[in-house]
Write a structure and sequence with these properties.
The protein is α/β, with parallel strands linked by helices. The chain has helices at residues 3-10, 12-20, 37-46, 62-72, 109-122, 139-148; strands spanning 27-31, 51-56, 77-81, 95-101, 123-132, 151-163, 166-177.
Length: 178
Amino acid sequence: MKREHINWEKTEGITFLHDIGIKEKDVVIDFGCGAGFYCISAAFIVGAGGKVYAIDKSGNGFRSLRDRYSQSGLNNIEMIKTNGELDLNLQNEIADVALLYDVLHYFSDQNRKNLIKEMRRLLKKEAILSIHPTHLTDYEQLINAITEAGFVYKGNCKGHLIHYNFFEESFVYNFKKV
């Protein structure tokens, strides 16, 4: 893990996730978390009274996440390895924020809609769905699918983000469950 990534998790990552609406004692789902860059930042924000679910199909990044997690003194991240299923074994309306960062392009249109429906099931009323739709070109279709699933578009947030272990200036799009 590069030192600049670890520094980002403790500084810019926290600021960025705070700006999208994550706060102390929240429950956050990071679906497709990879190496968990956003998980660590979110865990710092939510503190001991909150929780972060780090969910990934491959689980390849969990070792790195676990190492950084244990070194940080945090104890509020639960790592969940899936087999690619979209029906997560979590209770209804458990989360305040769901992050779908750099993951939506892995799904067909129908499975993308299924994932959005699953996030709606897991999110509390007025909760935030935040997406970083890298590698997708039809943003209008994506926004329509999200609003049809019962979310209201709340705007975007620009930041210095991590994408494939590189930094980039990019936007995330935020929605609120209604």
